[in-house]
Amino acid sequence: MAQIYSKFPLPVTGTIKTTCIDYVHPWTDSCLQGISGLYLYAIFDSLRVYGTVYVLTLLMKGRIPTKDDLKKTVLGVLQSTAFLSGTGFGYSLFLCLLRKLLGNFNILSVSFLPAFLSSVFAILIERPSRRTLLCLYVSNVATETLWNMALSRNMVRNVKYGDTAIFAVGMALLLMYYKAGYHKETSAKTDPMFGVLRFVVGPYEEKDYSARSSQASSFYRQQAQDIPNVGSSRTRSGSWQGRSKNPVFHVISQALRVYKKIIYKIKCCDRHLACPHPFSCLYYTMQGVGKMFTIGLGIQVTLKLVLNLKRVMQSPRNLKTILFKKDTLNLAAFLGGFSGLFRAVLCILRRTTGKDSPSYAIPAGLIAGVAFTRYPDTTVALYVLWKVAQITYLMGINKGIVPRIPGFTEFLYCFSTAILFHAALLEPTNLRPSYWKFLHSISGGRIACMNREPLDVWGLGTTESLERVLKLTKTQAVLK
Question: Counting Cβ atoms within 10 Å, is residue 406 exposed (0-12), middle (13-18) or buried (19+)?
Fold first, then answer.
């Protein structure tokens, strides 16, 4: 039977005569105890997860929380905890229930259907405002899982720089929407993705940016008036003259003066009339590179220090080996390169054609996406892909091109979650390790304790796959 089923990528026929005691909860003979144990542990772990998330969100507001803030935070934690723990409860419940109704397990009822049904009830508990975010996340992971499943069956093969291509195409489309202002015509106008784009590529590229013309004209008026005074003797004299006797201060002040003069010269370089930004195109490009490179470097250094805090405390000498590595600059090179390339290509196109157009974001975004090779990440690439799909769908609804499908977000969430649970039970090596650790934690290790031997009949090497995952993720098949 194993040889027959292994020929198919997703066999849907054939049953196994095992019981839920042998497969679902081999640590207890009672379905009620198995379901209750999982539910109780899921509640405590969900409280830990969402308690941390909501408290951090509250602290990031940067102000003393009011009574309403605290009330919303507590209610939010309880509601999200009920949602997440309800998924675990429903999954275990439907596993046993379907076994009793059908009299056996099949390829769908061993994980896919119970996960789908439990997700249907659980997602309705969560706030509607959070459902889209949850859907994007699980769809992201499910897409990667499906690709890994196809890859393991030799149905596809990995493409070099495939994640970079996905990221570049997705960002090109998002940046075109950003420049054209399409997102303002849909419910995506408050989407945080466009806030990220505004921060990375600058606000001047957004359609109808209100302050761009006034800032540009005021600078050039100031430029025409103040050029004779820059670097004059009057600037170098006065209150600073007495302090310049200090050699160190004198060197620093001279260096700052030279720096300001160079920056001023760069700002005064040519700026095409079609460009919406103030100052010169050269300064605009350099500003994007410098700003995002600094931010990327700061993030990377901070993460390295936080993750290696114990080593640094044990011996400060480890600081050098932790920070002075090539990969420390990867995130900075990606962010700085992306912003700089995007701005530079746009300015070149505007100079060449003599006008600005939202369509210029396509070639600019594709070229800027090459910087992703410095910091490739499949999760980020797939997130951008799904974000493009979401916003394009909303635009299609707004323009009357596609109909609004009620409950589509909830259905996609349930379907994606079912795929992830199916992979976690039948072929966990195709699941993202971080998601396996999440399932292992939220179930108190029970997902690893479920007996995989009856599932080996489908020829997917399930038991061996579980052993490899446990070793890879350093998790154990032990109840917590």
Answer: exposed
